[in-house]
Fold this protein.
Amino acid sequence: MPKDLVRTALELELSEGTVIADTVGEVACTFLAGLHRAEQVIADRIIRLVNGTLPWPFIDPAKALPWIEQKTGLALAEAQIAAIRLSLQSKVLVITGGPGVGKTTIVNSILRILSAKGVDILLCAPTGRAARRMTETTGFQAKTIHRLLEVDPKGGGFKRNADYPLECDLIVIDETSMVDVMLMQALLRAVPDNAALLIVGDIDQLPSVGPGQVLADIIASGAVPVVRLTEVFRQAAQSRIITSAHRINQGLIPDLSKPEGDSDFYFVQADDPETAMLRIIELVKTRIPARFGLDPIRDIQVLCPMNRGGIGARSLNIELQKALNPAGERKVERFGWTFAPGDKVMQIENDYDKEVYNGDIGYVDDVDPDAGELTASFDGRAVTYGFGELDTLVPAYAATIHKSQGSEYPAVVIPVLTQHYAMLQRNLLYTGVTRGKRLVVLVGQKRAVAIAVKNVSGRRRWSKLMEWLGAPNRPATPSMPQG
């Protein structure tokens, strides 16, 4: 394209206000107006919340901490005590850290102390799976951010906003690394000024799929108190999954030698995609189920750095489906995939009418060619799809690591080959490894693991949120029309 044409088009967009010229640091940048405004709203809302008064009366840590230790039967570590103490007196607080550092214990202690004092608490997470996990680990009901904000399926926006805010004294957001700029803006608009905000997440995981790097920017800005947990607890330190994840995060290659005795972390050598494919099928179909007693379809998840290629999620899905659930008579072929009863499937976009969301995993119960319908169960709830709607489902024997964010699986198998060169990054491998609860198996080349561990470049995300949060004498932004 001739430069002049691009420049003219950009000038027209600027004059219409569709895009906005600004800077990030010293660099001149052009923002989409909606994202520019969203980052301003996030900064304004956080600064306003930070400067507000606490919604609960003074709580004496000298009494609250022994009380919670007695209630839970846990002896809290110094870092945990400091975090809980800080949370009882902070209007906005970030808690960040990797696996095994005690984030859950801290959040649970805070929730129990505050709920005993009659504080009204709402819990949310960006995905259905992360919200379910939050409910399981805390015992408090957690919702997806979309459900908390009451999605309006007809209008497409949210019913909860500045004019109709959420009713609570404290909002806790988990897995915040996954929350993008637009969703964080919508949530913060609906948080009442008097409420406190507890932001929990692992800053070293992949950033959100959507634009921005909200958690990283909030932490880097210095505008909000941050608890960074680094100490891995003794019990967690016995897990090679957790020690390997922390090694990856520190830029060190995890121990890939054959473990003596039983372990929860293994490396299986495979020097090319064909060998890796055979090894993965053998692991999922026979070796892991025989040794660990896990169900090959329900308990084992293959996670790939990328979708395409000989050992990407797409080709792995085809081969694993053949090996684990070959289709019989009752099947349907649509949109390049075959679906049959027993198949493991993933929803790939939010469907508010069916109440299934991007990344949710279900199992096909039946395919009825006469009615032209497929029924799948998600968390024990039956959902019916017309054959024409199957473009929102894909087989889920293998999925990308990006799609697995916010989930945990009993066992995870990750191909790591130099063929994935473009995607081999530290935060990708770290996110994949931390998805496994009982077992993680890397299949591939040691060289590919080394490439991933050493590569922290990733793609830079251009965001001005950190600057706006950190700038003490920012001009006040004009009040935005609420929508």
Summary: The first helix runs from residue 3 to 16. The first strand starts at residue 19 and ends at 24. Residues 283 and 290 are 9 Å apart (CA to CA).
